[in-house]
Amino acid sequence: MRPDRRRLLAGLLLTPACALANPPAPSAPSAPSAKAAAWPTRPVRVVVPFAPGGGTDIVARALATALGTQLGQPVAVENKPGGATIIGADSVAKADADAHVLLVSGSTTFTVNPALRQRLPYDPARDLLPVARLARAPLVLVVRADAPWKTLPELLAAARAKPGALAHASFGPGSAPQLAAALLALQAGAQFLDVPYKGSAPALTDLLGGQLQFLIDTAASAAPQVRAGTLRALDVLDTRPSAALPDVPTLATLRLPGASFDAWYGLAAPGRLPAAARELLERATQRALSDPAVQAALRQQAMEPAFAGSAALRPLIDEEIARYRMVAARARLVVE
After folding, report:
1. Does one domain contain both 212 and 315?
2. Does 3 fall in a domain?
3. 209-230: average pLDDT
4. Cα 140 to Cα 5, 64, 124, 132, 136, distances in angstroms
5. Is residue 2 included in any domain, yes or no?
6. What is the pLDDT of residue 18?
């Protein structure tokens, strides 16, 4: 008998019969853990890092019921305001993988704070996992209805003639109105006087009282006063028109696209959330946001549904952070 046939026969004699009758099955691709695949297993909390009633709160509550239907678990909104959204964001960033807690916030949390603040109690890139963009809320520059400026170029000309004479409201260091005004000033070669306020309501009171010359706020906040005739909208600070104020010019018409500030709202999860749960959550969010009732609720508040998944959102966040860091350095914005 040939040596190679003797070796083969010996191997067969030494192999257990059960192994020959039941050869090993081919290895299957690894499946997600049961824990991740079953997520969520209990009610979900959505943290909003602002007080009730604001734009972020409106977005979260419009989404919550539809998202709960998609996930098969109740979704409740919890407000944790303070610290320029840091308090609420930190509570989500430090949650464990099975905490069943999410974050709905604006670009202040996702791009402005990481760009302007050197010290945060969490790592934005590691500890917060962007899941989806939900909606956009364009910013608009408004003046009193009886103000001498009918257009944004007229206001900018007045600001260039008297640097620092035109006061506007911001909502604290690193807020969207402050950064938007800095972008506009840099692009237009103007200089404004920044006056910090705690919110839209007191700023609007002082604008109407003549203590401020203009205000930058979301179209959702400004549109009712514009329609009532107490405010005049000079420009939407974006290259795209606002659905709430379709007749107001945009920065594209003024050839100032570099001054654009895209105010948006997004959904994030703790960075430890398993990948399978994140993918499930993203699909559920897209379906919830396509609900006509959710879209109608957002549009009623002058917001525009604008879903973008995590693959598209991450590059957007990185680009905005780099851009805002450059603006802060040029405008010498210091946020402690």
Report:
1. no
2. no
3. 92
4. 86, 27, 28, 24, 13
5. no
6. 38
Instruction: Supply angle C-alpha 93, 99, 105, rounded to 5.
Output: 45
Q: Which residue has the higher pLDDT, 37 or 124?
A: 124
* Placement of tokens 């897209």 in the chain: 286
Angstrom distance (rounded) from CA 263 to CA 251 = 14
CATH code for the domain of 210: 3.40.190.10
Same domain? For 217 and 290 the reply is no
Whether 35 is in a domain gets the answer no
Q: What is the pLDDT of residues 307-324, one digit of tens each?
A: 999 999 999 999 999 999
Give pTM, 2 decimals: 0.80
4 has a pLDDT exceeding 70: no
Nearest Cα neighbor of 107 from 56, 62, 60, 142 is: 56
Give CA 163 to chain center in angstroms: 33
Q: CB of 96 within 8 A of CB of 35?
A: no
- Among residues 202, 232, 259, the one where a domain terminates is 259
- Span 241-298, pLDDT tens digits: 888 899 999 998 888 878 888 889 999 999 999 999 999 999 999 999 999 999 999 9
Look up tokens 């603006």; give the residue: 327
Q: Which residue has the tokens 């890092």?
A: 49
Both 56 and 74 in one domain: the answer is yes
pLDDT of residue 260: 87
Q: What is the DSSP letter of 25?
A: P
Q: What is the DSSP letter of 251?
A: T
Domain count for the chain: 2
In a domain, 7, yes or no: no
Q: How many CB atoms lie within 10 A of CB 158?
A: 16
**Owning domain of residue 189:** 142-259
Task: Render 277-326 in DSSP notation, one character per residue.
Answer: HHHHHHHHHHHHHT-HHHHHHHHHTT-EEEEEEHHHHHHHHHHHHHHHHH
- Is residue 248 helix, strand or coil? coil
Q: What pLDDT does 25 receive? A: 42
Please state the φ and ψ torsions of residue 333, each to the nearest 5 degrees: -85, 125
